[in-house]
Amino acid sequence: MKCQRDKFSLQRKISYLNGAYMSPLLKKVEKAGIKGLIQKRKPFHISPAAFFKETEVLRNLFGQLINSSESARHVIIPSVSYGIENVVQNLEKKKGNIVMAAGQFPSNVYPWSSRANYQLKFVAAPTGGKNLGVSWNERILAAIDDQTAAVSIGQVHWVNGIKFDLTAIRQKTRAVGAALIIDGTQSVGALPFDVQAVQPDALVVAGYKWLMGPYSIGMAYYGEMFDQGTPIENNWMNRQGSDQFSGLTHYEEQFLPGALRYEVGEHSNFILVPMLIAAIKQLLKWTPLGIQQYCETLCHDTIETLRSEGYTIEATEGRASHLFGIYFNENTTMERIEQALSKHRVNISVREKALRISPNVYNDQKDVQRLLSALKEAII
Ligand SMILES: Cc1ncc(COP(=O)(O)O)c(C=O)c1O
């Protein structure tokens, strides 16, 4: 794939290597949002059917991205914390340990930690040594036992992109009767994810990072475990027959099938939904694998050079290519690095002790060369 920068409105003077913070807007996505916004100038053109049509398109497109054909299991959510809260309130095992990676994003921590019936079991990353991913995964597997109610984890760690071995974790969770809950926010869209292969009980994804959508809309997948659950809100649209606007006060007890009971109120958002549709359509053309390969090729030589300069970066096999951490030692300081990045106009994030680099198909060699120049310059 060649660089896709022309599909975005990024300025050349800043090198944006920070998709893990939020993606820039695709021109197509921006256009879809503007169209959605001005549509309300003429509300008489918005039919009751329109409340249900585009959302189904979105559910299907998300399904294509994660290899799931059951659109009634794909629901629109406003945030990860919302999607996880629905999980926590309806998990099959009502008590036990929740195994998670240390330093996990709080949206996948607070919903669990606020419950007295669940105890958090954080698995620390090993310190030092090469191939941290391998030993971290071993530790996670060892932490799963018959006291485990769920493993609730990312596909990659949001700080350093280390990949978690979801297939092995699924096997172990099944063996002990625990659920597998995945926060795919920092991977789905840019890294292949296959629901049929992993068979998670739930997958929750914010839309504004690797799905390239706008803020305040995301997608979740809920498996059979949640089919009879109680949603955290009682939205009227999630009841059967709600598309018949003339009969809405024939109050209906039955929910729509599958997981649709968990959809956020007013999910037929006429601005955000078309934007996320446009974004996922583009991702399906590029494909997550294509994005990984692009990022791997883009950064390969720079990573090698940075290693030779004394920076530490996880081996390729153990981490994502669209998101990785760079760690430094005594030969520089965070202050020097931040100054150099600012001078070279490189935008990345600092998370914990890592410089989090998260490129995408809009980046080119010029961006990574600037990063390299800045990090070389920062060395004392
Ligand atoms: C791994 C991960 N999950 C979730 C989120 C966002 O969560 P929420 O949608 O609850 O704000 C982020 C944001 O940085 C994240 O990195």
SSE arrangement, N to C: EHHEHEHEHEHEHEEHHEHEEEH
Largest sheet: 7 strands, mixed
Radius of gyration: 22 Å
Helix content: 25-40%
Tell me the fraction of residues in β-strands, as a range: 5-15%
**DSSP helical segment count:** 11
Which molecules are bound besides the chains? pyridoxal-5'-phosphate
Q: What's the architecture of the largest domain in CATH terms? A: 3-Layer(aba) Sandwich
Question: What's the name of the CATH homologous superfamily of the largest domain?
Answer: Type I PLP-dependent aspartate aminotransferase-like (Major domain)
Question: In the CATH hierarchy, what is the class of the largest domain?
Answer: Alpha Beta
Could you give the distance between the termini?
37 Å
Strand order of the largest sheet: 2-8-7-6-5-3-4
Structural class: alpha/beta
How many individual domains?
Answer: 2
What's this, in brief?
This protein has 380 residues and is α/β, with parallel strands linked by helices. It contains 11 helices and 12 strands.
Explain the overall architecture.
This protein is α/β, with parallel strands linked by helices and about 375 residues long. The protein has 2 domains: about 5-20 and about 285-375, Aspartate Aminotransferase, domain 1, CATH 3.90.1150; about 30-285, Type I PLP-dependent aspartate aminotransferase-like (Major domain) (Aspartate Aminotransferase, domain 2). About 35% of the residues lie in helices and about 15% in strands. It contains 11 helices and 12 strands. The chain has helices spanning about 25-40, 50-65, 80-90, 110-115, 130-145, 165-175, 195-200, 270-285, 290-310, 335-345, 365-375; strands at about 15, 75, 95-100, 120-125, 150-155, 180-185, 200-205, 220, 325, 345, 350, 355. The strands form 3 sheets. It has a 7-stranded mixed beta sheet, with helices on both faces. The protein has a 3-stranded antiparallel beta sheet with strand order 9-12-11, with no helix packed on it. Strands 1-10 form a two-stranded parallel sheet. Strand 11 and strand 12 (about 355) form a beta hairpin. Helix 1 runs antiparallel to helix 8. The model has no long low-confidence stretch (mean pLDDT about 95). It binds pyridoxal-5'-phosphate.
